[in-house]
Amino acid sequence: MRSIILAIFCLVLQACGSQPQTFNWADINNVYIADFVSDAPQQCKPTDVDLSNIQVKQFFQQAAEVEHKTLHDHYNYAPCAIEGTLTYQQQSCNWQVRAGATGYIQCAGDYYYFACDNCEQLFNASAQK
């Protein structure tokens, strides 16, 4: 009896300690850019984040998923972004990519935050357009 209780206790601990499922970028489809937004239009312009639909998907493929606190504490906040919608695992989601190579995807009440340390080529290509 004692070993059964111990086994159940171990299973409960494993269930509580399991990691949440991470974002799977391969499930992103139907990326659509809806708008450009800027808190500082004189400093941060559409050309600073002029990505195509394909480049937005590439951004999310190349970026690392990070905690919101990591994004806040370790990455610069760019005052402008592009935003739109996409399909993730057959649900419609909102997304935003900021000029500082950070972004998020929001599906229902879930937020997935991203930072890309290797996306200079995407953003430089948009600046050269």
What does this structure look like?
The protein has 129 residues and is α+β, with helices and mostly antiparallel strands. It has one domain (22-127). Helices cover 32% and strands 33% of the residues. The protein contains four helices and six strands. It has helices spanning 2-17, 53-62, 68-74, 120-127, and strands at residues 28-38, 64-66, 80-88, 91-98, 102-107, 110-115. The protein has a six-stranded antiparallel sheet. A hairpin with a 2-residue loop joins strand 5 (102-107) and strand 6 (110-115). The longest helix is centred in the first third of the chain and has 16 residues, at 2-17.
* Arrangement of strands in the largest sheet: 1-3-4-5-6-2
The tally of domains stands at 1
| SS class | alpha+beta
According to DSSP, the number of beta strands is 6
Helix-strand topology string: HEHEHEEEEH
What is the averaged pLDDT score? 82
